[in-house]
């Protein structure tokens, strides 16, 4: 099979399935693993797909934003592992900002028993924080239906009344060129402001967020410390590590 035929086959499979494993491509095309890996690298360089551990997937559309329900079930075990390590960074007496992401809400059970104060713009975070008996402050504004995040002018104004030791932020995409991004400008404003108000800022990101670019940028990678898992592509990790600190769990 010619190179162009293989690559067209790969793209057709991705349109049908969105994600495909290298082994599947090998079986369908009858090509070697090294050949398929070379095809995937070429297709990624031309922005037609994104390589992931063991396969490839399509890039997410810049304005597409999954609902909380959709994001909660995706890569949950990986998110919980990252969240536990993030919670280990929290010290007694810390004042924290917890973003409205599905990765940050996973931190809350691991924060129970710590003498801390938390400010959040996440509606789903509130009940979890109270259950964990953590002093909780909520920003104002209106609540987005899809992500259940408080956003808008009221949220920004009330957020500016606080200062944080640490901010923990979720993201939809991370790349060296485009930084940390999210689909909604309103949520990007909240994230950006929280980072400005914090002594240290951490972005929690499972491996699927790397290489993705959403509509609204909220930080350069050099402004934050990235917490992720060992499933991250090693090439991407090395690229981003040149600009900022990347903590990988397990190391």
TrEMBL record:
InterPro entries linked to this entry: Carb_Metab_HTH_regulators, DeoR-like_C, DeoR_HTH, NagB/RpiA_transferase-like, Tscrpt_reg_HTH_DeoR_CS, WH-like_DNA-bd_sf, WH_DNA-bd_sf
Record's keyword annotation contains Flavoprotein: no
Keywords: DNA-binding, Transcription, Transcription regulation
Record domain HTH deoR-type: where: 3-58
The keyword Transcription is assigned to this record: yes
PROSITE patterns attached to this UniProt entry: HTH_DEOR_1, HTH_DEOR_2
Gene3D superfamilies attached to this UniProt entry: 3.40.50.1360, Winged helix-like DNA-binding domain superfamily/Winged helix DNA-binding domain (1.10.10.10)
Single GO term (MF): DNA binding
Pfam families recorded: DeoRC, HTH_DeoR
This protein's name: DeoR/GlpR family DNA-binding transcription regulator
Native source species: Alkalihalophilus pseudofirmus
Organism classification: Bacteria, Bacillati, Bacillota, Bacilli, Bacillales
